[in-house]
Amino acid sequence: MPSYNMPKRKRTRSGGQRQRLKQQAEEEMNCQSALCMWLLHMFAWGHFSVQRVQKISKLVLTDLENSKENELIWSDLEKLSQLGCDGLYRNKMHAEIMRECGKVSLLPEPYPVEMEYKAPLGTQMQEVFLPHEIFSSIYHNYTDTWAKTIVPSEDHVQKFWEAVDGHPTMNNSPLRADFPAWQTRTVPLLCHGDGVPITGIGKGWAKQPTVFSSSSMLNGASTKEAMMYIWGCFDKLSTVTDSGGTFATFFAVLTWSLRCLCFGRWPENDHKGNPFPASSWRGKMAGKLLAGGYNAFLFCVIGDLDYYSATLKLPHFGLASGPCALCKCTLRGLQTWSDFRKTAAWLTSMWTKEDWFAWNERSKNPRSTNCQVNHAGPWPWT
């Protein structure tokens, strides 16, 4: 049958799903509020969750109610609405809002560190969020966050240390000898590192820096709330020099900060051993307790296999002669990792602190060679 005799299909729907959601929302709500319409658009396009839409709407109504007694509420919003000359210069808005954030945040300023990068960057001043300073600030200024993300209670601390009492990391641990109240006052800490795509996400040409963060192992919050950002760097821009290079400098700073956390006091000297100026705020804090007698102990290092080998310089997972940083297993032979029996030889070949440091091919990461807080265990973080 000729095609011109076929009945034409009636088109009943147009546009994609997001456009239909947007149109439906407009028809059902018939909004008179510009903010309401914008929130619905953000939801329809998938930029905002329904929970965020509800939260913003609720806060607006709260401000409207409170403005009956205090009209200064609107001056705060007016400042935000004028960012970048009322949005005309979007590239200026970030710097302006960061100035406003600085007025309400009680977190300490990041620690300035000179780091060496590849040409043409050369030496650059970088800023690192020191774990011991963030730990102290949250304890003193954000009590709800402290209870939610760091220490719910001393009972939680005690239960954790009781649960890991037989862990290899606890063998000859300095906690037992040097910290009398460690079972109730020492917070177990983890450090995380991984590549995070920030440009060309989902593309073959995506670029990603290695990002470092830390967290208490007692937290009951989401990952987004619990992980505390420390520092990040594009691997391709980093250098390796006789003095160490980019990552070596960072790990030296991290080691120093974690040592301060372990002893629970503000340091008198910087990461190079130079005293802080007595007039500086860090100099004035020297020797004081970080968090009312609480301290933190690096118990766990997490990341993927590529991070372990590329950044931490642990044995590469593809090596036949020794692919593991926890034991001395091999691809073949008596200690092959493919032996899954309970009597497998590799199960008795766990690295000890003494064996690891005696091994010439161990990681030369500064976190391993320069750390003065001796964490016992198979990791090079000992």
Structure description:
With 382 residues, the chain is of the alpha+beta class. It folds into 3 domains: 18-57, no CATH class; 111-199 and 206-314, no CATH class; 315-362, no CATH class. The chain has helices at 17-29, 34-44, 50-66, 73-81, 83-87, 93-104, 131-141, 143-149, 154-163, 174-178, 182-185, 223-226, 246-263, 281-285, 305-310, 353-358, 366-369; strands spanning 111-116, 123-128, 186-195, 209-216, 228-234, 295-302. The strands form 2 sheets. It has a 4-stranded mixed sheet, with helices on both faces. A two-stranded antiparallel ribbon has the order 1-2. β1 and β2 form a beta hairpin. α1 (17-29) packs antiparallel against α2. Residues 369-382 have low confidence and may be disordered.
Short description:
By secondary structure, this protein is α+β, with helices and mostly antiparallel strands. It has helices at residues 17-29, 34-44, 50-66, 73-81, 83-87, 93-104, 131-141, 143-149, 154-163, 174-178, 182-185, 223-226, 246-263, 281-285, 305-310, 353-358, 366-369, and strands spanning 111-116, 123-128, 186-195, 209-216, 228-234, 295-302.
How many helices? The count is 17
- The neighbouring-strand order within the major sheet is 5-4-3-6
**What profile does the largest beta sheet have?**
4 strands, mixed
**Overall strand count:** 6
Helix content percent band = 25-40%
Provide the structure class. Answer: alpha+beta
Tell me the overall shape.
globular
Cα(first) to Cα(last) distance is 82 Å
- Strand percentage: 5-15%
